[in-house]
Design goal:
- This protein has 295 residues and is an alpha/beta fold.
- It is built from twelve helices and ten strands.
- The strands form two sheets. The protein has a five-stranded parallel beta sheet with strand order 3-2-4-1-5, with helices on both faces.
- Helix 8 runs antiparallel to helix 9.
- The radius of gyration is 23 Å and the shape is globular.
- The relative contact order is 0.11.
């Protein structure tokens, strides 16, 4: 008979996700040093960088050190999961910030959970939350979009998909692509949409540049260096009178594709737009009838 989750977890080890400094080593949480010294296995995105961090923290890594990065995480995950299942304490660290947030980690966490292995975390610095707090934009509701596609067409398409998103948006971007990305954002979101470019957070040359997207794109065209996080204001709320039937139908379909039932999607769209549910329902029915009669 299969044991309870608690009994299986007690026989297994523990996966520890540890946040690492995004710039200033002094920001490292005290528990990070303890975990580096006590883990049976330390899985690091860059082993050399991790060893330099341990040296800066004046800690001796006690366990076996292995690499765990985008190129080998699929192959290395089963090995680490077997070690966890056998009782090992595995510490996962990336180059900066929290593992699995646009960094290796999700695959290992999912596999560990599947095997009923305990997963815990050492909270640490986060470029996402730091940039959001410094941006001067609304922080009550936000969504993290990670890195955008490198190809211009795919990037613009992805941005247009969230052009009506009312939550504040947070992105990571490489410095050599920043000007193109800000220009694409200005095209997709509107040139006057407010944003903040956060560069080299917590480091010596930290800089937060705030302004409309068109101005930030012009500034970035001169060249920008360092680690970049971009925070963009959410879309302004539209009144129901400004929404066309086609736009109402599009919003319903987006929710349906996300897994909502049509009735629920219609009710949610109507509530967001401040419209009667019947008006949204009629728009959906009209669109469906139009599709049927189109040759």
């Amino acid at each position: 008979m299969t044991g309870s989750p608690d009994s299986s977890q007690s026989a297994a080890g523990t996966l520890v996700l540890a946040g690492t400094p995004i710039g200033d080593v002094a920001d490292a949480p005290p528990r990070l040093a303890q975990e580096l010294a006590g883990a049976d296995i330390v899985a690091a995105e860059d082993t050399r960088r991790m060893k330099r961090l341990a040296q800066a923290l004046d800690v001796r890594v006690g366990g076996r050190v292995v690499s765990y990065f985008e190129g080998n995480e699929a192959a290395r995950t089963p090995e680490l999961v077997e070690a966890l299942a056998g009782g090992a304490r595995v510490l996962l660290v990336t180059d900066a910030g929290m593992p699995s947030v646009s960094d290796p980690g999700y695959r290992l966490v999912a596999a560990a959970v599947e095997r009923s292995v305990r997963v815990t975390a050492v909270p640490g610095p986060s470029a996402v939350l730091t940039a959001l707090a410094l941006s001067g934009l609304p922080v009550d509701r936000f969504c993290f979009e990670g890195f955008l596609p490198r190809k211009a067409g795919e990037r613009l398409s992805r941005l247009k998909d969230v052009a009506d998103e009312r939550r504040t948006l947070v992105y990571f971007e490489a410095p050599h692509r920043l000007d193109d990305t800000l220009a694409a954002m200005a095209e997709a979101f509107g040139a006057e949409r407010r944003a903040a470019v956060c560069r080299e957070l917590t480091k010596t040359y930290e800089e937060v540049k705030r302004g409309p997207l068109k101005e930030l794109a012009a500034w970035a065209a001169e060249g920008v260096r360092g680690e970049i996080t971009v925070v963009v204001e959410g879309a302004p709320e539209k009144s129901g009178a400004e929404l066309t039937p086609d736009e109402l139908v599009r919003r319903v379909r987006v929710r349906e594709e996300a897994g909502e039932r049509r009735k629920e999607a219609i009710a949610a769209v109507a509530a967001d737009a401040g419209l009667p549910k019947r008006e949204v329902f009629d728009a959906v029915v009209a669109a469906k009838n139009a599709e049927r009669t189109t040759p």
